[in-house]
Amino acid sequence: MTATQSRPTATPNSQAAPVKLEGVTKRFGKTTAVQSANLEVEPGTLVTLLGPSGCGKTTILRMIAGLETITEGKLSIDHEDVTQLSAAQRDVTMVFQSYALFPHLSVLENVAYGLRVARRPDAAEEALKLVGLSGYASRAPSQLSGGQQQRVALARALVMKPKVLLFDEPLSNLDAKLRRQMRNEIRAIQQNLGITAVYVTHDQAEALAISDVVVVMSAGRIEQIGTPEDLYRRPANAFVADFIGEANLLRATYDGQQLGFGHVTLPYTQPGAPTGEVRVLVRPESISFSDTGLAGRITSGAYLGAMTEYTIDTEAGDVLIAPPSESTILPNGSDVHLDFRSNGLYILPA
Amino acid sequence: MQPALLLWPLLGLLAFCVLPWAREGRAFLAGGPSGLSLLETLPVLWVPLIALIATLGLSFLGRAARAPPTLIAALAGFLVTAFFIVFRNEPADLGALITALALLSVTGMALSDTGMIKADRFIASSTLWVGLFLILFVMFPLYKVLRGAFGETGFSLEAFRSVLTSPAFFVLENETTARSEATLALIATVVGGVAGLGLSLWRRRPVWATVRNTVLAALGVGIFAAMYFGFGSLRNSVLLSVSVAAVCTALALGFALLGTRSRASFGPYLFVPLALAGYAIGSLASSTPQTAGLGILFKAAGVLAAVGLAWWLTRRRITASKLLGVFSLLPIITPPFVIGFALIFLLGRQGLITKDILGLDTDALLGPLGVGIAQTLAFTPIAYLVLVGVVKSLNGTLEEAAVTLGASRWHVLKTVIWPLVRPGLANAFLLTIIESLTDFGNPFVMGGSFLATEVYFAVEFNPAEASVYGTVLLALSVSAILAQQAWLGRTSFTTITGKPAAGMVTPLPPVLERVLLFVFMVWVLFVGAVYGSMFFGALVKLWGFDNTFTTEHILNLSVGSLGVFFNTLKIAAISSLPVLVLSVVIAYLITRQKFFGRGFIELGSLLSFAVPGTVIGIGYILALNSGFAYMTGTMLILIVAFIFRNMPVGIRSAVANLRQIDPALEEASTTLRAGSLTTLWRVVMPLIRPALISALIFAFVRAMTAISQIIFLISPDHKVVTSEVLSMVERGQLGDAAALSALLVFTLAVVIALMTWGVGRMGGSQAGVSV
């Protein structure tokens, strides 16, 4: 079961092209920004590069665009080796974090910029209609709101009918509500057009919500490639587990049937999992207070409205849980017991 | 098939077959033989011809098949043409040059097409072009200067030895004086060393720092003392430039603080200068025979009107910052030596101050002192322009933080503002030192032996000596720049960002503000007197002897000066457009592109920053006076000299503006499949348009006011205004010189006003001239 099956997938259109990175490395002087990255992007899918700042995700995006040269390795778009081609020669467009709208041109001129360069018939109006801005053609970019500017940038990239559409943290300058709305719109447009897209973000919630496939990166290396659910439920290592969502990584023992947290044991099986001393991922929503189970003491509590967040000191390590708020908040130092849902546990690979 | 690939070979063929390749004399396009007609006697020219035809034919092939043979053909064609031009050693005409450039362009495009370099065609070709120009017009002339100094045939230090030991250059021990200068300098060295040692010990510095400080202090004080007690042009130039730079920088800092932080009305300070001006105008108006009896009436009316104006300005609460704007423009539109020559009216034997106010009969106030005063008046505004930018960019929140921590205004000034403006001070100091070192006009007008004037006198009789002086000037200006870099390299001023500074700036301490306002008043008085005397000098028969009103000097202008004036306008206009194009392209190459040869272009443009105008002048006369590039005596050499002299300022301004543009805009253009030429033309140029127009005005104005780099290059057929004014001063026609200078200053003021207004109308955010 993968995430793609749970979403409506568009049939790839004629423009949609696969992207393939083989051993791609980028060095700036002595520092290595990206270390031999291998990645295949299926036609018509949206793949997100996710990671903390400085992990190399934007560098990969810019190498696909042709804005950075590739130090080693091979990049192909639509089965054609484009490693040596410049940005202007590649059939790729990009939506920039700062939108990069030309301030001296009107909205329509911005969208038509690429068309005029390529001398193709005018389709700029149509692209503006697609992003719902047909009435704004003659305005200056500075007269638009942040969300509208973002749409113009999107229209400008779409109008070129690129083989691959790139997004460099496109929503990071918008407020939270607008970000959610734009995220859904970008996803809808990408799926309707069936276009291949590569999307960079450092916001894990955004990545989970928008992607067919997420690539988690850290320090220039790809840590894991998988569907959003894969990453959340079955992270490849502690870094991915910790980076995606809230994670409790607890010390435990595992013998193939039983999982032991300190004095408490639970029946649990996970094919292929290591045995002996292991690290177990437990998401906060899989833990609840109970009368029996793992004993611990509350060290801090924070009221967040819908829920209350507690940190609890236990034998297996510090545990973060977030049950729905009740009328009284448990004081620090309270002794509690914790119960784990077995389908919310995952033993990390050794 | 690409139009550019067709166009360049076609242009090359046209130049090869139609345009002349060789010149008889200095004139261009005077009907010399074309490349085609030279083929018979010089079969080597088949190579460029075949190369042009081959590249033309190849342009119809696909990229992969076309690129390597095109590259080989074009490169071979270019190299043969270039070697032919250089080693034939006869004046080359435009046909040969255009053929070479066309082949160079094709080479660049082919180089890009092969994928050997990561640059598109435009970048590759323009890099080659810029590189060629820098070699021809910056490095080659500099090489000739050095070659001249170190011996034309084989390496020799003879010229150096003879200049450096000449008493005109520098002498420490003067036999004719009673005291021993060498002993005094030695004593000063020891005193300096002891002071450095003492200070280091008192501050308990580590051993190595103590040793270093002691040596540095001994050397510094020793050199200064040797300069102070010694004689010669080196001594004069160094002392002059250091003292002028110190005074200019101090004044400029004061004015910059006034301009940004003074809220007090400047009106009350204006009564005295304006009243004097009114009195002067009144006395001029009453000097004609018809109005002779009305002297008292006219003078009274003048003073009254002036006082009225001052009162009105006081009511309007005019601040010093308003006047400082005008004041910062004046030196840009005035050739520096015009100030020097106007000072003759004030400080000469018949000068207003010397004779009428002090009652002296002397011209001792001219000479080195006069040069210093003139340079201070001329260069303080340049330092001001640097410092006002720095002071404006100070982040007000830092001062607010200091005030909330209990700092007084003086304390804020000392502990926050001063450390932050120090790099700016170094910059302003350096700029004025170089301006002063290389200023030719003022010492020439006022007399005194300085390096820049020694060059001028040497160039006619002994080019080797002139080269040595040029090398010394170059060494001084380069070491000043290196010293500044070394000092600034250790200082970081990350608080000065491009972001608009928030927070209120602290007002100046009231005492300091009043002192600065008073200094500024004296300044306004002096500058007013200088410009006033220039205009009055143009309107009276003979300043000091016969102060009656006359239009004679103005009418004299049409006798020849007017022709020179329009000729200068033409040269300045022609040269300013290439400055613009070169500056933008070079700035774009060095800020935005990564490619082979970028280091070379950066070095070349950096070098053109450091080279004093005088040195460029000698270089051109040495390099372009014979051989294939024989250009002396033509208008072209003046134009080329202006282009490469004014280019550094253009580059600096374009680079500063490019740094403020988000590179994502250009990347967006690139991902939308625009090449770098399109990006430059449709995205970059429109965005930096105000800066471009400023650079254009500046290049034009500087070409109109330049003197040091072209004094060697003018010819009877191609004179310029500045050299004309100089020779009028030399011949003693002060009135005519004043009239011509006034015309120049007035015209440039109108040009700047019109252009500024035009930029403002176009919606440019940045009016006026930025340096």
What can you tell me about this protein's structure?
The complex is a heterodimer of chains A (350) and B (771). By secondary structure, chain A is an alpha+beta fold. Chain A has 9 helices and 20 strands. In chain A, helix 6 links the parallel strand 7 and strand 8. In chain A, helix 4 packs across helix 5. The radius of gyration of chain A is 24 Å and the shape is elongated. The N terminus of chain A is likely disordered. Chain B has 4 domains: 116 residues, no CATH class; 252 residues, MetI-like (MetI-like fold); 49 residues; 221 residues, Orthogonal Bundle (MetI-like fold). In chain B, helix 22 packs across helix 32 and helix 31 runs antiparallel to helix 32. Chain B is globular, with a radius of gyration of 29 Å. Helix content of chain B is 72%, strand content 1%. Chain B has 771 residues and is mainly alpha-helical. Chain B has a two-stranded antiparallel ribbon. Chains A and B meet through strand 6, helix 3 and helix 5 of A and helix 28 and helix 29 of B.
- Shape descriptor of chain A reads elongated
According to CATH, the homologous superfamily of the largest domain in chain A is P-loop containing nucleotide triphosphate hydrolases
CATH architecture of the largest domain in chain A: 3-Layer(aba) Sandwich
The CATH class of the largest domain in chain B: Mainly Alpha
Q: Quick one: biggest sheet of chain B?
A: 2 strands, antiparallel
What is the N-to-C order of secondary-structure elements of chain A (H for helix, E for strand)? HEEEHEEEHHHEHEHEEHHEEEEEEEEEE
| CATH C-level of the largest domain in chain A | Alpha Beta
Count of helical segments of chain A? Answer: 9
> What kind of sheet is the major sheet of chain A?
6 strands, mixed
